[in-house]
Hints:
Number of domains: 2
Oligomer: single chain
Helix content: under 10%
Number of strands: 21
Strand order of the largest sheet: 3-4-5-6
Largest sheet: 4 strands, antiparallel
Amino acid sequence: MSEKARTSRFPCIVNTLGEMNWRKRAGAVFALCAMTAIALTAQTFTTLYSFDGTDGQHPDAGLVQATNGDFYGTTANGGTNCAPGGCGTVFKITPSGTLTTLYSFCASEGCFDGENPTAGLVQGTDGNFYGTTSAGGESNGGTVFKMTPSGTLTTLHSFCASPDGCLDGENPEGLVQGTDGSFYGTTFSRGASNGGTVFKITPSGTLTTLYSFCASEVCTDGQYPVAGLVQGTDGNFYGTTAGGGANVGINYGTGGGTVFKITPSGTLTTLYSFCSYGGIYCTDGALPDAGLVQATNGDFYGTTANGNHGVIVRGGTNCPPPAVARFSKSPQVAR
């Protein structure tokens, strides 16, 4: 992913860290241990590993702990291919900090194996790891891949590679394995209406596009799902879109974003449209660009990148603290 792509997609984050030189800071893996669970008066922070570029750069996503006890993750850049910046890696790191680069993307001319994995991995019930690359593949639309714990990669699907164009979406985000064994995810863009998609893919690589966002003229159903999905206890999947919604044009030209529910068969329900209170600040938040988590009480919790308090300057350094929202599974309740 180019420097321009990183800054244009996350302007507030990059501007807030404006003094950080992305080219010189490859990233790190760390551990934070709470010594007392009640008072949290003593904590130990340990840097386990610092990337130098050749072994990876920009670990944008979190880690997953595998059944063998080690942690697995991705770096969006770096590695041994695509000089000078690198096209990303998959790595393994032990709890004590020993890192092994399992795979460097763009291993062949054309990068048909994918490049720039910006999302994390999920370990399937078969013991293998599944993930996505935001670019590369047969038509540079991104890929879904499977990787064995030892590092053997299989490309399961290349987006935008069909004769019909990019109806299957482009720039995939993270995956979640459903209770049916298939993996579910989103693509940030393209699809039948150029607003992104929700898809299902089997472990063997059969992909089904469940929904294409921006189905209406003004994208009241949402647009641009930046994050992955979470499966609720009711069996449905829940997620967010960073744009679109019922309040298109109030304060954000593409809408303040949405929270949605989608069944495993592809029936979508918009649960909430952000920036619903009007005004210039969107006090309920706007632009949710992260996923949701379901709490033990059944409600879903998430954040929005903009809105709530402070002055929002697009592309500027005055980025307000994220708004925090809680949602029940009822479309009428958002608090």
